[in-house]
């Protein structure tokens, strides 16, 4: 891209940024105004509507208390019918009415409302007193006319007070309704202004979107080129694991045609023994929105090609949303060549056991494991006795065969968890994890005897000298271990060779 095109692109980007900022500011400003208006509406609801609802609820209890089925109704029925059930109902209803009055008094009331409600309260209390008198008179078997004269209550003023309260409540509700209507009208006007501005901004944004889409198309083309030119295999899969896209390198790695690869589930590219675990982990991973590198792990990852062959790989995966569907993308690197090179660099070419580099790495790893889990660890250093005489008398080719046979013999008689290395020249070293010094000494003696009786050549026999030592927690390093086992081997050789020495 030349300088002129770069400058033009920068101007377009700057213009898009400025337009975007203007849109954001306008939306934020009107959004704030709408929020303030909504908050005001909420305040009206809290300040007026909620108390009015409570007021109406308590008022309903008051009307019921003074009306049919309330305490006055039951009071009069008790006097007329002398049925004790009405007596107890009147007591209960009177108390409910008093509770409603007490709750009503806790509201924000004016002086007239307080006067009216107190008048209602006094009337209810008076009825309670008359109810007790009526109960006593009925118990004494007085006739209805006599009882009525003694317990009659003039509740005309209470009924009038109740009417006043109802009228005031209606007036308050009407006032609240008017304020709500005014606020609604203001809110509607604000919405008209808001949408007018938004439509104008949308027209401006249309140009920005066209510009952005052109940039996206350009970026998509770049990504597509990278996708197809990548030196690593790249596979896209949907939420069910079905492969929906793959690049050329993926087809080469798994030896499938693209059309065949897109018919597979990603689980089918995993070795059979890992498939169930992979399916579970993939299902869990696809629910997240993350990326994950699967290299630098304790165990090597493997994939499976069309022919069922396992391929050592490193994998990075990510999950993302596209068209309301969760998808994943995997970048897969073939580790075959790297592993081969790494193995060759750590393998003795003659004896095909680990070399000194591999030995150092393995020992450091075992020391760390032993220190962390407080397990035992021992090492055995082996030297072929008088090996120089074999080379001098029978030649280096014969000497090489002796080295190969010694390595094979040692490897065949150690545990699978033990590790054998060629330490250098005619020396070998065995690392024995989870093994104490006594067990290591027994293994060393066993190897010494096996070597002594083994037939290496028609004209000579081979013996070995062995030094044994164990890891001392918190006091040892690989350097101190090597120093101590070297001394142990030296003592074994000075003791006449073909022997074991522990230190």
From TrEMBL:
Give the stretches traversing the membrane.
13-32, 190-211
Q: Which residues form the GGDEF domain?
A: 375-503
What protein does this entry describe? diguanylate cyclase
Q: One GO molecular function term?
A: diguanylate cyclase activity
| UniProt cross-references to SUPFAM superfamilies, sorted A to Z | Nucleotide cyclase, PYP-like sensor domain (PAS domain)
Question: Which reactions fall under this protein's catalytic activity?
Answer: 2 GTP = 3',3'-c-di-GMP + 2 diphosphate
One Gene Ontology BP term is: negative regulation of bacterial-type flagellum-dependent cell motility
What keywords were assigned to this record?
Answer: Membrane, Transmembrane, Transmembrane helix
Task: Name the InterPro entries on file.
Answer: Diguanylate_Cyclase, GGDEF_dom, Nucleotide_cyclase, PAS, PAS-like_dom_sf, Rev_trsase/Diguanyl_cyclase
């Amino acid at each position: 891209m030349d300088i002129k095109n770069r400058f033009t692109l920068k101007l377009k980007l700057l213009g898009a940024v400025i337009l975007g900022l203007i849109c954001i500011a306008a939306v934020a400003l009107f959004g704030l105004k709408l929020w303030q208006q909504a908050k005001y509406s909420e305040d009206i609801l809290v300040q007026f509507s909620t108390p009015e609802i409570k007021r109406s609820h308590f008022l309903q209890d008051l009307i019921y208390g003074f009306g049919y089925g309330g305490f006055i109704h039951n009071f009069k029925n008790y006097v007329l019918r002398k049925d004790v059930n009405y007596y107890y109902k009147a007591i209960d209803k009177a108390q409910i009415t008093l509770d409603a009055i007490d709750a009503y008094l806790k509201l924000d009331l004016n002086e007239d409302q307080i006067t009216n409600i107190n008048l209602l309260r006094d009337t209810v209390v008076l009825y309670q007193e008359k109810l007790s008198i009526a109960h006593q008179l009925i118990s004494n078997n007085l006739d209805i006319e006599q009882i009525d004269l003694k317990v009659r209550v003039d509740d005309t003023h209470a009924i009038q007070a109740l009417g006043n309260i109802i009228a005031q409540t209606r007036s308050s509700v009407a006032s609240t309704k008017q304020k709500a209507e005014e606020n609604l009208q203001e809110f509607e006007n604000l919405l008209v202004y808001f949408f007018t501005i938004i439509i104008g901004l949308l027209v401006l944004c249309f140009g920005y979107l066209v510009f952005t889409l052109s940039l996206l198309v350009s970026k998509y083309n770049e990504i597509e080129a990278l996708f197809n030119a990548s030196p690593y295999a790249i596979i896209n899969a949907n939420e069910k694991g079905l492969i929906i896209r793959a690049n050329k390198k993926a087809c080469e790695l798994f030896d499938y045609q693209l059309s065949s690869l897109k018919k597979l589930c990603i689980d089918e590219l995993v070795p059979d023994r890992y498939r169930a675990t992979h399916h579970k982990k993939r299902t869990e991973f696809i629910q997240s929105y993350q990326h994950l590198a699967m290299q630098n792990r304790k165990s090597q990852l493997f994939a499976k090609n069309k022919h069922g062959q396992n391929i050592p790989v490193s994998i990075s995966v990510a999950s993302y949303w596209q068209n309301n569907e969760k998808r994943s993308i995997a970048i897969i690197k073939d580790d075959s060549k790297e592993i081969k090179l790494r193995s060759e660099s750590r393998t003795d070419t003659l004896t095909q056991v680990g070399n000194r580099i591999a030995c150092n790495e393995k020992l450091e790893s075992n020391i760390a494991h032993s220190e962390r889990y407080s397990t035992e660890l021992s090492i055995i250093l082996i030297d072929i006795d008088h090996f120089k005489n074999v080379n001098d008398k029978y030649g280096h080719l014969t000497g090489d065969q002796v080295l190969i046979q010694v390595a094979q013999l040692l490897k065949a008689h150690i545990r699978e968890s033990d590790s054998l290395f060629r330490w250098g020249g005619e020396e070998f070293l065995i690392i024995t994890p989870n093994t104490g010094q006594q067990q290591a000494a027994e293994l060393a003696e066993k190897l010494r005897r096996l070597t002594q009786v083994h037939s290496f050549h028609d004209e000579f026999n081979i013996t070995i000298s062995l030094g044994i030592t164990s890891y001392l927690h918190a006091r040892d390093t690989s350097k101190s271990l090597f120093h101590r086992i070297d001394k142990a081997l030296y003592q074994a050789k000075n003791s006449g060779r073909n022997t074991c020495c522990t230190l």
